[in-house]
Automatic annotation (TrEMBL):
Record SMART domains: MoCF_biosynth (SM00852)
Reaction equations catalysed: adenylyl-molybdopterin + molybdate = Mo-molybdopterin + AMP + H(+)
Entry annotated with the keyword Magnesium: yes
Source organism: Borborobacter arsenicus
Protein's name according to its UniProt entry: Molybdopterin molybdenumtransferase
Involved pathway(s): Cofactor biosynthesis; molybdopterin biosynthesis
E.C. number(s) listed in UniProt: 2.10.1.1
Residue ranges that the Swiss-Prot or TrEMBL entry lists as coiled coil: none
A molecular function GO annotation: molybdopterin molybdotransferase activity
Keyword Transferase: yes
Family the UniProt entry places it in: Belongs to the MoeA family.
Entry keyword set: Magnesium, Metal-binding, Molybdenum, Molybdenum cofactor biosynthesis, Transferase
């Protein structure tokens, strides 16, 4: 049976994935969120001609010949303008951020002056006319377009929105991901395990990938290999309004691999099951009402590689984020055998070498091996039926970290 190609599987999985609702959150809670509307400036910044330095506000013509002594007629700290007018032979002591008083057109920095007494200053050096003044509206003017819809609220965007006087921001609702682990053998971390049991580890890595992609995660725990137990958690995920439901394990063809049967009973419309990928062949995708369903393979590395390749872009799209995989070209650090019909994602180390990036595959690639995966920082992508490759050949890699 021909297996579905990875690219086609991704296309089908992303079909129609758009952000749905938006909400308003306090600006202090908005870091990492995505703007649901474009933002325009609610004020002009700076709102007045402002001093960019600590020093003296003067008239340029008074400091054309140096040195010169000026009478200090007042003081202008940030937040409190000097109300008078600077006339001939006069100066105002001024500080960074303060409004430049009327009559003055230049600021002399204090390092270029000598204070003779409380009311007199000697100007030793002077800048060109207009220096050290930030003009009103230098940064932005009321009504200016500041941030586009879809902008990730990073540090600069948040400070800009705050400066433009937004106490709260319209953001895309974070998609909700529900996770269900399946398997009689699974116990949570910290358990006293029996001789045939293992620790359920996949949900933690999958949740971390999802949260980094902007999702909220509802971990529904472990269901034993019983139809009713799995079905009950599936119904809970749907009732909680999950945008995406992920099951871990039970996706293959064994007698205890119940995922497909249970989800079908619950009304899932299957889109695809089994793809031409290693690790990750048993990947399943379907829709359960408005909830998208992804059946991830149980093997730990398969569940994480599939999460990077499929779950991450899906959640990014649903959360209104731009997404592009971090794909690079590198040179192979070791030979690779010819590939079969499955697109291979080979755990590797990526490092800078004298001839550019060097991607060196780990010798053992079993999809149960989390230690190898934790030591890998990249995946070498091998197209189906690629011929054997030599060290030094060019290859495609996905950077993981
Ligand atoms: N006859 C065939 N057997 C298998 C095939 C196949 O095509 N024909 N595919 C293999 C591949 S590839 C994979 S991947 C696995 C995936 O199978 P399942 O999704 O059904 O996963 P399980 O059988 O439930 O578990 C596999 C393995 O992973 C461990 N596991 C499961 N869940 C977790 C978890 N939450 N945390 C940590 N480890 C977990 C489980 O104990 C098993 O060791 O099937 C192959 N077989
Ligand atoms: O997806 Mo499976 O991991 O190829 O072992």
């Amino acid at each position: 049976m021909a297996l579905l190609a990875v690219n086609e599987a991704l296309e089908r999985l992303l079909d129609g994935a758009e952000p749905s609702e938006s909400e308003t959150v306090a600006i202090a809670e908005a870091a990492g969120r995505v703007l649901a509307e474009p933002l325009t400036a609610r004020r002009t910044q700076p709102p007045f001609d402002a001093s960019a330095m600590d020093g003296y506000a003067v008239r340029a013509q008074d400091v054309a010949r140096l040195p010169v002594t000026l009478r200090v007629i007042g003081i202008a700290p940030a937040g409190k303008r000097f109300a008078g007018v600077v006339g001939p032979g006069e100066a105002v002591r001024i500080f960074t951020g303060a409004p430049v008083p009327e009559g003055a057109d230049t600021v002399v920095i204090q390092e270029d002056t000598r204070k003779l007494d409380e009311n007199t200053v000697e100007i030793v050096e002077a800048p060109a006319k207009g220096r050290h003044i930030r003009r009103r509206g230098l940064d932005f003017r009321e009504g200016d377009a500041l941030l586009d819809k879809g902008r990730l609220l990073d540090a600069a965007a948040l400070s800009l929105a705050a400066a433009a006087n937004y106490p709260a921001l319209p953001v895309v609702k974070r998609p909700l991901l529900a996770i269900i682990a399946t398997g009689d053998e699974l116990m949570p971390p910290g358990s006293d395990t029996g001789p045939d049991q293992i620790i359920a580890s996949n949900a933690y890595g999958v949740a971390a990938i999802a949260e980094a992609a902007g999702a909220r995660v509802l971990d529904l725990g472990i269901a034993p290999d019983r139809r009713q137990a799995i079905a009950a958690l599936v119904r809970r995920a749907v009732d909680e309004g999950a945008d995406v439901l992920v099951t871990l394990g039970g996706a293959s063809v064994g007698d205890h691999d119940l995922t497909h049967a249970v989800l079908t009973e619950q009304g899932m419309e299957l889109d695809f099951w089994k793809i031409a990928m290693r690790p990750g062949k048993p990947l399943m995708f379907g829709r359960l009402g408005r909830t998208r369903f992804i059946g991830l393979p149980g093997n730990p590395v398969a569940s994480l590689v599939c999460s990077y390749l499929f779950l991450k872009p899906l959640l990014a799209r649903l959360g209104g984020r731009h997404y592009a995989p971090d794909t690079l070209r590198a040179k192979l650090g070791a030979p690779l055998p010819a590939n079969d019909r499955r697109q291979d994602y080979i755990r590797a180390t990526l490092q800078d070498g004298p001839e550019g990036l060097l991607a060196t595959p780990f010798i053992v690639q079993d999809s149960s091996m989390l230690k190898v995966f934790a030591n890998a920082n990249a995946l070498i992508v091998r197209e189906p039926h690629s011929p054997a490759a030599n060290a030094g050949d060019s290859c495609t890699v996905i950077r993981l970290r």
